[in-house]
Design a protein that fits this description.
Oligomer: single chain
Strand content: 25-35%
Order of helices and strands: HEEEEEEEEEHEE
Length: 235
């Protein structure tokens, strides 16, 4: 074997060694990436903006694949859990769906019925009331020429809110033309028949209907005479 042949064999061996080293390097990189990324799981992305308190449907989301280790603990991986849920805030397109973005829609109990009224955003608790909250419903009535006094009443105590609609422009009433166009929110309550009648009456005949948001677990207990207020009786 001459020197040229020996050099050729040495170069061939070096090439084989370099190729093996490159192969080992690629395997090492792939193994390192897999160890950092890990297995992929299903996640869900919001297709388009969803308004707060809107009922959720599976069609509003698209399935994507993401490394499991990159997902937050509250990311949704099973879309069936959105059935019967409502958004608790405005959901933006492209956001990853998480279980703190929605709650179960409150249900109407036995002996209750749904009733919705428009609440002036300026005189209600705009933006602070959500489904599941408890409120006191106040109505103020103006006096008349027969000597009836102006008064404020708690017409329903501890009313359960089950839905909050979208902010809507509301034209002033014919007898209230000096008042600018207001914004109102449709709010749905679960009430018994008598309380539903009180709310319907107040919406039709009261000068204003207002809501007072109650702290969680702190229902109102009215003593005799506390549901009605007049300025003359405040002594």
């Amino acid at each position: 074997m001459n020197s040229r042949q020996r050099r050729g064999i040495i170069l061939l061996l070096l090439s084989v060694l370099c190729a093996f080293a490159a192969f080992v390097g690629v395997i090492s990189v792939i193994s390192d990436v897999n160890s950092k990324v890990g297995p992929e799981v299903d996640a869900y992305r919001i297709k388009s903006d969803i308004s707060s308190y809107t009922g959720l449907q599976p069609a509003q989301f698209e399935k994507i694949k993401m490394p499991k280790r990159w997902l937050s603990k509250n990311a949704v991986t099973d879309l069936s859990i959105v059935n019967g849920k409502i958004a608790v805030t405005n959901l933006r397109a492209g956001s990853l769906l998480q279980d703190d973005m929605f709650i179960t829609r409150p249900a109407v109990g036995a002996g209750e019925q749904e009733i919705a009224i428009m609440i002036d955003a300026a005189t209600g608790v705009a933006g602070k009331i959500t489904p599941g909250d408890t409120v006191n419903i106040f109505a103020t009535f103006g006096g008349d020429k027969d000597g009836t006094r102006n008064e404020s009443r708690i017409i329903v105590a501890n009313a359960k809110v089950i839905d909050v609609g979208k902010l809507t422009a509301l034209e002033p009433k014919p007898d209230d033309r000096d008042r600018a166009v207001t914004q109102a929110v449709p709010i749905t309550f679960a009430l018994n028949t008598k309380d539903a009648q009180r709310v319907a009456y107040a919406e039709s005949f009261a000068a204003h209907v207002r809501l007072a948001l109650l702290a969680k677990g702190s229902p109102t207990t009215l003593r005799p005479g506390e549901s009605k207020y007049t300025l003359e009786g405040d002594k």
